[in-house]
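LOG
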Amino acid sequence: MQTNNLFNKSGKVSNIYMDKIVFNYLGVPNKQILYGPGIGRDAAALKWPNDKILIVKSDPITGTIGNIGRYAVIINANDIAVMGAIPKYFMSVLMLPLNSSIEDLEAICKDIDQAAKELNISVIGGHTEITRAIKQPIVCGSMIGETTSDGIITPQSKPGDKLIMTKYAAIEGTAILAWDKENSLNKLIDEDTLKKAKSLIGELSILKEAQLVLEIGGITAMHDPTEGGILNGIFEICIAANVGANIYEKKIPITPETSKLCQILNLNPLKLISSGTLVITAKSEYSDRIIATLHSNGIPATCIGEIKQEKTVTLHRTDGTQEIIAEQNQDQLWNVA
């Protein structure tokens, strides 16, 4: 076999192969499918009776070992919320390696249960097994949500729309590193910084902010930036909407603990997995009101750029240089041994 036919890096499959291979094998067409798979699309939408739209999402947790039940529920719920829906039903495929303990199984199930209760979600089924095929626990989650035909949000960003983000960059990546690499990090950073970094696991859900901004209106896209971080999340919106964007680095908020961890581990926080951040594009005249509403509800929000006609995503760096952002095939998380 030729080496150029091998996938030799962890992370998402490149958009090239998603378009060339994955999206070419989709079974039979169905008129109930309103919104199927595509780059920058967070979930599928199915037409349902009584003007209901079902939003359906699947996502695995592979980049961490700790708290994987919690991550599975919240990350899948986020992708439902950015489509304008309320997440309601969760299913999981839980795979454990050989020699896992009963306590390992119970800890993951408790994680799922607690996160589901916090978000008012029902766990309705799934599959659980022990397998020699893996070396660490993996949870593959699926979430079903509901909205109406006039409530669904798909990427419709237009030139002139404002680019808004909530909270901070690299929330999920910071939490994962702080929990999974605690033993090595506590020798490199102070206890208070590590504690604050670990606490970011409580900031992963974007359901509250998604529901708040939907009530205001003017939303042309929402996205939960996972692998590849905030920059890849914006890139995916632009691919889906067939537009470009200007992003201003100095406006992107990053917590001191994220900056510290990334400095020590030589990571780029703008390209580090960032669930917990909601990326929004909105009509210009709604931008100030959206940000003010989020702030009044205790959610930090910042305008970090705008959508443009030219189909390039440009990062205007703090030092005055510019970087054209391409697809991030591998998240910064995978660079940490």
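LOG (cont.) second protein
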Amino acid sequence: MKHLLKLALLCLPAFVCFGVLAAETAARQLNLTLLQTISDGGGDARFDYAAVDPKAHRLYVARGYGVMAVDLRSGQVTHQVVSGKHVHTVLPLPDGQVLSTNGDSDTATLFDGTSGKVRAQIGTGQKPDGAVFDPASGLVFVMDGKDGTVTLIDPVHADSPGRITVGGKLEAAVADGLGRVFVNVETGNEIAVIDTAQRKVLTRYPLVGCDGPTGLALDQDKGLLVAACSNRLAVSIRANDGKQLSNVPIDRHPDAVIFDASRKVFLIPCGRDGTLPIVAESGEGQLTVVTKLETAVGAHTGALDSETGRLYLPTADYHLRLSGFEPADGSFRILVFGWKP
């Protein structure tokens, strides 16, 4: 035992050095650079989540007035593909349809992603926010932020087959494709796990040390969830049993976690500080911040083009008003980043 202990102590510095060297190597290989800035010509600068449809080569951004789109091949900007009332999420679907959530009218809009032709306006719970498509059931799960329910939407029949009560203020959600949806419960500091076939909450994963989870992403191959917390932490959780594996420091106002499956990193835009921590994972689910990119104050969401690796971060200039920090009209823009070769 003593010899084993001595051997372990002798090997420990080597493992530490190896970990440091691995992180430094990853940092050198995982640098993003600003390629361009896209503007939509002014007006209402409010925005929320963004999404890329890799099949249609289109970027969608949820705006205060509706949905904005960018053709990623030609660069053409469509200021308003479809109207909306304080849109929070835009979700491209496999069949070419797109769903957007309207926070001020408690509805979801189902429309054609190219033409913008509206197929249906579907009622939701109060303040619909995030949404995720579940391949196992073929349903969209809409997080009703205010009343703690999840509205189910059938994109084939363009209707809602029901709701699931979760409780608390619901934020981002991800689907594992195997019949489970994971939902951040901001007020409960937990992840609710929904069985999409039974349409009920199976269990809840407490997030120890995490205050106010917002963004959420899943590395499906490794079964690893990463949640961004309002108290400047990112935590990793094993998806199959909820075991919390590690946490790392990030910055203020993270609202999304974006997983780059090609590079096996989590990108966490932090809007209050204008930074993008790039977080790598180990085989055991340990997280490491390998580098931090300066972006812009206000850039708190984003979308990744899985085909090109380009990252799109919406932002605007913010001013302090009586109602709080608000984006200045005419200042909206999208920062486009690409990986350095």
